[in-house]
Amino acid sequence: MRLGVVILPELRRAELTSVWRAAEQLGFDHAWTYDHLAWRTLRDSPWYAAVPTLAAAALATERIRLGMLVASPNFRHPVPFARELIALDDLSGGRFTLGLGAGGTGWDATILGQPAWSARERAERFAEFVELTDRLLRQPETSYTGRYYSANDARSHPGCVQQPRIPFAIAATGPRGMRLAAQYGESWVTTGDRAREGLPPAEGARTIAAQIAQLELACKAAGRDPKTLGRLVLSGAALAAGLDSVEAFRETLGRYAAVGVTDFVVHWPRAAAPYAGDLARFERVISAVRAA
User: Fold this and answer.
1) Are 239 and 248 in contact (CB under 8 A)?
2) Residue 157's pLDDT is what?
3) Which of 164, 174, 170 minimizes the C-alpha distance to 186?
4) Residue 141, Cβ neighbours under 10 Å: how many?
5) pTM for the whole thing?
6) Of the candidates 126, 54, 47, which has an alpha carbon nearest to the alpha carbon of residue 84?
7) How far is CA 277 from the centre of its chain?
8) Cα–Cα distance measured from residue 55 to residue 84, given in angstroms and rounded to the nearest whole number
9) What's the pLDDT score for residue 88?
10) CA of residue 162 relative to chain centroid, distance
11) 3 state DSSP class of 169
């Protein structure tokens, strides 16, 4: 089981450098940040952009994979975004993973002045967003005409360090999104059942097992071996992280590993909600599990 951590993009330079380095030193396999313009209860709190945050993290670390959970069409267009992604891949020395999701109905959905899109439109936009981003990162020149997104002789020189492109981690719980994950993803991402909160390991693992069964059907329909697709679980909201003790965390990881999860992601503890936690205990738990 690979372990990952989300570090919110709220830290000033000095603390940002120390926290991302600490995540690497604790032995995490990957570290992520959220890609939002405004987020939940932290809307009026310090919040920095994901791309420069990850650029700084790339220069502060050497081994750990870095990523975005998750970019969406809510406020991004694939053409300028692809340029930023290519730069991140270069700055990280090929350690960058792009998380992609359809987006929701929060502030990001209306912050540019447009009405919130319907669920159907979000799904349709997401399909085009993923397809065009895939093309832009694979080839030096791209022209594309879709219903929502277009590109006119867009250039992508010098291209990605990772070939044929940066790996995609695609968040999906519905059939259409899972088909995109099967077609384009190196990993699939889930947060569990959004209608429920804090599910304990046994119940959370059952929820994820049912989603994985649907994902495997999508892979088979796409002619893909399901074993070639990573399965990343993001804990913290719908799914309890199990960080209260070493024993609890080991049980949590074991439950998810048993149903086919390959990657489990927790949140770096904050002084206050959301994701409030004791840093010393967090470090003890992660260190003990990684040392086993």
Assistant:
1) no
2) 97
3) 170
4) 12
5) 0.97
6) 54
7) 21
8) 10
9) 98
10) 18
11) strand
| Phi-psi region at 193: left, alpha or beta (left = phi > 0; alpha = psi -120 to 50) | beta
Cβ neighbour number for residue 231 with a 10 Å cutoff: 22
Asked whether the CA dihedral 172, 211, 228, 221 is positive or negative, the reply is negative
From the list 279, 280, 269, 195, the residue with the least C-alpha distance to 239 is: 195
Token output for 177:
């999104």
- Of 244, 25, 262, the residue nearest 253 (C-alpha): 262
- pLDDT value of position 236: 94
Cβ atoms within 10 Å of 123's Cβ, excluding its own: 17
The confidence score (pLDDT) of residue 106 equals: 87
Question: Which tokens in the block code for residue 90?
Answer: 């270069």
Which regions in the chain score pLDDT beneath 50? none
Identify the three-state secondary structure at position 141: strand
At residue 207, the pLDDT reads 97
Cα distances from 10 to residues 33, 49, 130, 177, in angstroms, run 10, 9, 27, 29
For the segment 197-218, what is each residue's pLDDT rounded down to a tens digit? 999 999 999 999 999 999 999 9
